[in-house]
Amino acid sequence: MKKQLFFLLLMFAQVVLYAQPRYSSSVFKPQQPKVNAGVQIVYDAKGKDLEFSDEVQAALFMYDNLQWKRVNISLAKDAQGLWVGEVPLTPATAFVAVKFFQGDSNQPDAADNNADKGYAVALQAADGKPLAGAFLAEAGFQNPIIAGGIFYGYYSEDPKASDAAYLKSLAAKEQAISGKQYIAYFESWMKLQQLALGDAFPAYASTFIQDALKDKTLKDETLGVFYTYAHSRLKDERLATLIEGRVKKDFPQGATARFMAYNKTKGSSPDRAEVIASFEDFLASFPIEQWRKNPNGQGFIYYAVYRGLGSSYFDSKQFDKFTALYNDLDFRTGNELMRWNIMRAYMFKMVGQDTLYNISEAILPKLIARKDDGSYLNDFDTREKADSNMLRQLDDRLFTHISLLNDLKKYQEARKYFLALSEAGKYSNAELNEINMQVLEGLEDDKQLLPLLEMSARENAMTPKMFDKLKALYLEQHDGQDAGYAAYLAGLKSDEEKAEMKAYVDQHWVNHPMPLFRLEDADGLFVTPEDWKGKIVVVDFWATWCRPCIMAFPGMQLLVDKYAKDQDVAIYMLGTMQTGDYKNKSVNYVRGEGYRFNLLHDAVNPKTNEQDLVFKQLVPLFGDSSIPRKIVVKDGKVRYCSGGYSGSPSKLMDELSLAIETLRNEK
């Protein structure tokens, strides 16, 4: 009998032990607070990492209305040296956790979270009873997998999962309080049960959902939650089919039925006819106009369906059906279809230009008409950001169409669409500016030509051909004398542009040893560090497969021409990371396009047999292996380094010129 009693006492002690949370509520006043009475944080930093901090803040993690939210508050130091603050409660706040820190909340200088045990407290209602969500929040705080990503950064190490018996007790207590509110926290609830039950969880979840389905008053939203969980999480197709039958019976045109129908489309099928048929069937059953009368969070479905259907129509050359889709599309979806299909077809010459013009001309006016429909709003924090993105996207679509019209010598139409560009887009793209110069030349509109070139120069978005034209116009007006041309050109650039350029260059100064090298040039001769002594040397790392590298060539040609007679400056185009007969590839491409470059070939790494020996030695400086990459070398050191291409040849020339002249003038 004594042994049995001892065993029972031991079991009771274990249950009590399991039921003890790891966290401390010592920093909250009162330590058993009621949500209607207010809660203070009173933090004693003595002996802790924040003891000598002069500014302590509190990161509050609050379970409010069955949802986690995070709020940062500043604390004030009282006469006793304690840090004090008020917790911003609402009537539905069931649980509060806190982490103290100094500095940036994401990367604090110092922090205190009770040595990874946590500071937290559960709140009570006015009558002293627990609030709905309190026990689920307690479980989620100590087992972050239950709560999702809200506690990322709270713990220095992920806490060990709580004991199953403890989790079961929390689940039982929560169920007793919250009852059928489970839909509001279904995912968290199931994660809690999964941790508590282990291998027994799938059977529990299936039984739980089947029992819930006995309720004949379940809403469409609830059935949708059950279907998604059964289909995606449990992978229980029998249960998913059971729910599907209920949905079709009770809500045949509801959101869940729509989602299930979307799941059955064949967007990933290699059979294009099957893709088209499945998407057409979906739209026939669930027209977008029906959804627009009662929109919910399923807009992504129509975005995906129209993208897939539009691309399938385009690739199968059903262009009439492709253009007809634009009767239904919002700006966001229509923009993506035009970007992927029209721009791609233009760049890669997939469709004849006359045919492509007819398609593009049919859809672009409809896209322009819907530019203010707000379809991008959900992708951005503010209307301002959404509208800014919309204008950039529309400018890009106009660029493609104007380029096509210029190729077809439809200059009058091209000029009309140029005027439809945003104010920010009219002169900021060098390639588009050159096209518009060609359009004005085609229209013989000399009156507009000089203003276009001057505005383009002001935006520092000029190409070599534009510089040639601008200089020719200047010489015409000055009796062939170019004495004042340099000052005229410099005066066209705005002070803002000059300041931005200087700030950009100032951010890219470095001081890194240049690796030793012996590199072959286009004529089979070799260049070594000895050849660079006493010079400022610009090196452009590029490859024939790198489109941004090739796009930057006109800017590099401007730089080469500017310093062609300067014995103290050398400029090299160094091909790297290429395959096959890379030497002939590089030389043939550059000479075939008429560029006048000093070419170098990166050496082959004997350990890997890759053509990247010099480039890879500089990757620690670059931070990644992307190209194009420009460096400026002086006295055996890499002194300047920048990557990418802005899209403006003149801006690239000015950037590297400023770096060269700064190094030339340094003492």
From TrEMBL:
CDD domains: TlpA_like_family. Residues 1-19 form the signal peptide. PROSITE patterns: THIOREDOXIN_2. InterPro entries: AhpC/TSA (IPR000866), Thioredoxin-like_sf (IPR036249), Thioredoxin_domain (IPR013766), Thioredoxin_ResA/DsbE_sf (IPR050553). Pfam families: AhpC-TSA. Keywords: Signal. It comes from the Bacteria. Residues 508-665 form the Thioredoxin domain. PANTHER family: THIOL:DISULFIDE INTERCHANGE PROTEIN DSBE, THIOREDOXIN-LIKE PROTEIN HI_1115. This is TlpA family protein disulfide reductase. The lineage of its organism: Bacteria, Pseudomonadati, Bacteroidota, Sphingobacteriia, Sphingobacteriales.
